[in-house]
Amino acid sequence: MVFSSTIFLFFFLPLTLIGYYLIDRRFKNVFLLIASLAFYAWGEPLFVLIMIGFALINHFTVLLMDNFLVKSDIACENAGHYKKLAKLVLTITVVLDLSLFFIFKYLNFTISNINYIYIYIYELFSPAQAQEILPQTNIALPIGISFFVFQILSYVFDIYYRKGTVQKNPLNTMLYISLFPQLIAGPIVRYQTVADELRSRKETLSDFIYGTKRFIIGLGKKAILSNTLAITADYCFNSADYTQLTALLAWVGILSYTLQIYFDFSGYSDMAIGLGRMFGFHFDENFNYPYISASVSEFWRRWHISLGTWFRDYVYFPMGGSRVKSKSRLIMNLFVVWLLTGVWHGASWNFIVWGLFYFVILVFEKLTGFPKKFRHKWQQILYRIFTLLCVILGWVVFRAPDLSSGMAYIGAMFGLNGTFCNSSALYMFFENLGLLAAGMILSTPIIPLIKNRCTGKVSGAIYSTAETVIIAAIFIASISFITITSYDAFIYFNF
Amino acid sequence: MKYQKITGVLLSVFFILSICFLGIKNGGVIISGIKNSFKTFEAEGDLTELQKNLNAVESSVKNDFSYKNRFADIYGVGLSVINKKIIGNFDFMKTEHGETMQFSLDSQIDTEGFIGEMSQLSEYLKKRNIPLLYVQNPERELTDGEREVSGYGAFYDEQMKIFEYLKNAGVDTIDLNKELPEKDSAYFDTDIHLRTEYEFLTAELLCRHLIDSYGLEIPEFQKVFDLNNYSISSYPFIGNTSRSSGRFLSGTDNFEIYHPKFPTEMNLYVYDDGTKKSGTFDKVCLNGREQNDNKDEYIYWVTDVLQYPKAYYEINNSVSGPRLLIIADSIMLRAMSFISLASENVTIIDPRSDDGSALNNALLLDYDAVIVYGCSSNFFNAGNIFSNAQEALSGLSQKEQQNTVSYHGMFLDKYNNVKPAQKGEIEIDRNAEAVSLVGWAVDSEAKSNLGGVYIKAGDNIIACKYGNKRQGVVDAYGEAGYLNSGFTVNFSASLLYDENGELLDSISFILVGHDGTDIYEPVEYKLK
């Protein structure tokens, strides 16, 4: 089920909200758990069992691990022994989680690569045509597996590193993993963020109001902007032959996709954060106007923040982070993190290359000290443009069906096809000009800026009324876009 | 802070009330969709199917969403604000010219195939001395960008290839691009069809052509094609290309209906479902759709009577005039209604809904002319119905030569799933609305299957589906060539009754020899 579907908006959400606020506090978590499982089962009736299995296995192994950790704290003589046992349980749990994650997400990709290498080597030494040695499996990818597996691992690590208290109630562990607002497309909520709220939380009117506003804004980003931009992006990227694309059309396509993916994912995060507030949960922010970044490093501090901090805290820092003695070790640490970031997004060489592309730029920024070294404004402006260009080129690789197509698309953007413009490209340019302009403006912090400017100059009554009317209008417009158009897939559901 | 809280509460209340209200309004579709999905799951136990069915509920809700037209209006305003002309996911396009047109991106035409079929039809009609007229629909007024992006340019260019080929091959043609005055405004702004005025002009042009080129007599021509002889009613109309973009983006058309002032007496028969209508033109084949009771401008259909997906209609008029066969899609339906006013008999075949049998039946009869006029991809890709028809009819036309031989290799197994009590007789269930016949027939001379099986019921000839496997016939006769000798046919029970509602005395099975050249003596079954 997606947040921008009529089933969610007009069936699931009202029933869940009414049920949640009518039910006795003791049963609120159970109610939310049932609602969350129903939410997931709507799209994945089989995989809901797998998710429950994942959650229960981890609940009990973490309980065992915590038991050893507690004993290691109090049993002075055998502390080392219990510590080792806890580490063993941690290792087994993580290996088990990652193995299952690998089977669902990466097995077929691995098999096809093994087959490719085998056939390549075989045909190098033999004139006969080689057959594939490993058959592909028909294992499907459960929606949102990358998100809930990372949440599970967050729980395991946070307990091991004593950043949160263990859940004794398996229903609460399951609720943490399956909580529907963030279940299938994040943000990746760290266990320590919501550990206390899982046990006890207070729903307030101001939280509900904030949640409503945030949800509607997210819905508008998704239904009005992202879905409309997606139509143009798909038109360009679904072209049969990228070598026939004109430069203008290629730019229209990638700019549409650049804005689409931002409004899609940040819109989903807004809705998740808003829904969380409605039910009394406080999730961390996931986006902070990434396209205004002055450097690529800054971009990654503003884009998909929950994934960045996850890798930082659970992979980069444990490896030593940037506080290592040698530059080669630093480069190695960055390589691992960005390889994993690429792989996390999907079982495809596109994502691996996309991750490593960022690794190269980030190493460049670390080693040169750019753009901090720049003294002149024009240098900083140029580097901002360079940053945005890198991000845009990265999205080409991310969106293209395969690597060679991605390269062909980039070639088209820079006129390597020899055609810069034709009548259909001009049509699509003017067709999307208004939307692209609106998207670009709204991807900057212009609204908070206006809000700040208004403070003190416009009366509170006028400002609040205007804000409410605009949000209500966004809500009505979103419903009209949802009911009239058929486009509603979220990009990050694929991960 | 106080104001912020008050407006915040108001917003939250508005949000909750909206989702609850729309939930209640659309809850029925959602709940029944969920129920049906689980019913299927209970019966089949297939989780993948359950997932598919649950996902399909979303489409059902969107299709029937409450206040959909009002939301379409808002959606159109949203698109206008950002100056978008492409509506939905490349569903429709608002053109510079002001029309909202449907995209033709997936509209591929099997140009060669259609030309081949038309050539066969042309040859067949030539043999029978029936003139064939091919009509080219007018092109929409588009900019180069619109032509390319919408796919309409490529689609229309293929149509013109067909037109030019047929013209050069000697088929009589009319290009409405050249014939219609001020064709730029021929199409509705909000619908894929032509404005009533242009349907009327098309009908006049075609009838004039029938007179001038084929020497046909149309005594009613002057009366029918004089606009002074009509009263015109009209109402605001938003058609099928604007149902998702609404009035503010697409605008509103003026839908006109022409009501003849002169007396008319006509009969309509729809072969697909046996519908019969008799009376005035307005009652039988009105050239428009009356506005609905709640005066809603959003209307999908432009006709009430002759609607897709019906394949086979016949209109009889009490006046003297030509007998015409019109093979067309909906671009022609309303023009056809005007033509029928000036004709004695008009038979219409819509190939989009025909598997070949309707055209087969229709081509058996005599006409003064055949008109072919379509514009949709489904029309051009309707399959090999012309060639099917021509092949079978090349045999049936031999009927005129009375080249029949005695024949007994045929058996009727079942009538409406009941075995006939006596050979050569069928006891008719008077309450049944449809007739279903199952049997077998072989070419005992050639020791093989037949070329085809047809049923003659009164003046109607109905094609059977022939070629079903019948191992029992092979075993009984010891002839392997009889394997595909089974036939089935379903048709409206009304065909078994005459004009006065009396049951026909009998029906005959017409059996075409294996090579299509011989017709065996009809096998008669008495009706009781």
Write a concise synopsis of the structure shown:
The complex is a heterodimer of chains A (495) and B (528). Chain A has 495 residues and is an all-alpha fold.
How many strands of chain A?
A: 0
Number of domains of chain B: 3
Strand order of the biggest β-sheet of chain B: 5-4-13-11-12-10-8-9
Structural class category of chain B = alpha+beta
Radius of gyration of chain B: 27 Å
General shape of chain B = globular
Uncertain runs of chain B are: 396-407
Low-confidence runs of chain A: none
Straight-line N-to-C gap of chain A: 15 Å
Q: Quaternary state, please?
A: heterodimer
What is the tally of helical segments of chain B? Answer: 16
Mean pLDDT metric of chain B: 85
The helix/strand order of chain A is: HHHHHHHHHHHHHHHHHHH
How many helix segments of chain A?
19
Total beta strands of chain B: 25
Which pair has the most extensive contact? A-B, 64 and 58 residues
The description of the largest β-sheet of chain B is: 8 strands, mixed
User: Considering DSSP H and I runs of 4 or more, what fraction of the residues of chain A is helical?
Assistant: over 70%
Rounded to the nearest angstrom, the radius of gyration of chain A is 24 Å
How would you describe the overall organization of this protein?
The complex is a heterodimer of chains A (495) and B (528). Chain A is an all-alpha fold. Chain A folds into 2 domains: 6-105 and 143-201, no CATH class; 208-295 and 370-494, no CATH class. Helices cover 71% and strands 0% of the residues of chain A. Chain A has helices at 6-22, 28-43, 47-74, 79-105, 107-125, 145-160, 170-178, 191-199, 205-237, 247-278, 296-302, 305-316, 327-345, 349-368, 377-399, 403-413, 423-442, 446-454, 460-484. In chain A, helix 9 (205-237) packs across helix 19 (460-484) and helix 10 packs across helix 15 (377-399). The longest helix of chain A has 33 residues, at 205-237. The mean pLDDT of chain A is 90. Chain B has 3 domains: 24-66, no CATH class; 94-325 and 336-349 and 357-362 and 373-398, no CATH class; 402-527, Immunoglobulin-like, CATH 2.60.40.10. In chain B, the strands form 6 sheets. Chain B has an 8-stranded mixed sheet, with helices on both faces. In chain B, strands 15, 17, 18, 21 and 22 form a 5-stranded antiparallel sheet that branches. In chain B, helix 4 runs parallel beside helix 15 (385-396). The longest helix of chain B has 43 residues, at 2-44. At the A-B interface, helix 1, helix 9, helix 17 and helix 19 of A face helix 1, helix 2, helix 3 and helix 5 of B.
